[in-house]
Amino acid sequence: MSSEYLLRAKGIGKTYSGSKKPLSTLWQALFGAAKNTADQYPVLSDIDIEIKSGETVGIMGRNGAGKTTLLGILGNVIEPTTGTVERSGRIATLLGLTAGFNPNFSGRENAYLFCSIQGISRTETDSRIGAIEAFADLGRYFEMPLQSYSSGMQSRLAFSCAVHVDANLIIIDETLAVGDANFRMKCYDRIRQMKEAGQTFLLVSHNQNLVANFCTRGIVLEGGRKVFDGTTFDAVECYKRVRTVQMGDSDVTVRSASTTASLSDNGVSLEQFQILDFGNLRGAQIKVTAVLVAKRQVEFLAINFGISNQQGIAVCSFNGSGSADNISNVAAGSRLEIKMSFSNYLLPGRYFLSAVVNELIGDVSKPLSLHQNVLSFDIIGADYMTGIADLDMNIECKKQNDEKIES
User: Which of 2.70.50.60, 3.50.50.60, 1.20.1300.10, 1.20.1260.10 is the CATH number of 268-379?
Assistant: First the structure.
């Protein structure tokens, strides 16, 4: 394998036996295979992934898409049923908060255990243990058994161990989703610093903003298959579509995120999107119109609007299903004008508007049409501010007194 790559996986598949029949279970125990192929179900199918040194790759997918199983295979924790994985260098894998830890060991003892699993000698670990303890910031709990830890405390220990073993590739599965906000920010800052120093990461998260913020590439899984691998912006848009469209086995062929993606014809859609008023000044109104076309009668409709930036980070989302602005008694053949406006407190950059039309059936919201990135607009302004929102920040500096400070 080229030194450019830390990991190469080809044709990865994983199948588990799920039979509840006693005879089939006995047959598998005796002969090592299920008696009937119907007793087996695939979790992953024919996945190829390459991770280059210096990349931060994000994997997204709905629950059950196969993300954790794939990471387990890539991290050499789970054996694939089919396919091969080539690895180069040390890989630190955080699949679960207690994966690789002993619940009866103290935090300190588990830190030594984690390092030893990574091939680090006792002497080397002695030189790292102080940094691990300081970053985890567990206080007296560092000397107490892991089974007495909360999930947030386990997260602290696991993450601290992973970032102090000098791994070539760090694999993290949703570990940052637990723990208090301050520690999460501490983790994000550490990831950012390590990225700038050339560290390679593989992250799995449902948080599309995390992927958009930190990753250089995005992968989307659906139904055990890789349906997208490319830029983080397009990966986030693909994930939005996967989450909205309840894709069946025959429909898992998404290779890229369409800028005008639409669900199957459910009789209701939005057309003729336009920006009528565009105020570039701070606080000015930006007004958008569209035409709702209903080919069939619908009792209750709601429209969700979202604005994201060019990194795919969601700036603002409006959930019409939870508001009082629902549309009722839409007759077949109707064409309704939809107006949406918002105040411009955005910082300079390009932004994209997306919309989803939902049918409300009792407490259930059923997506009828999806319109991704149907409009884009540029905000021009001062270049001394970065980020997303203009918070009207003001910096003041004045003398407290005129007295000289004597040395």
Answer: 2.70.50.60
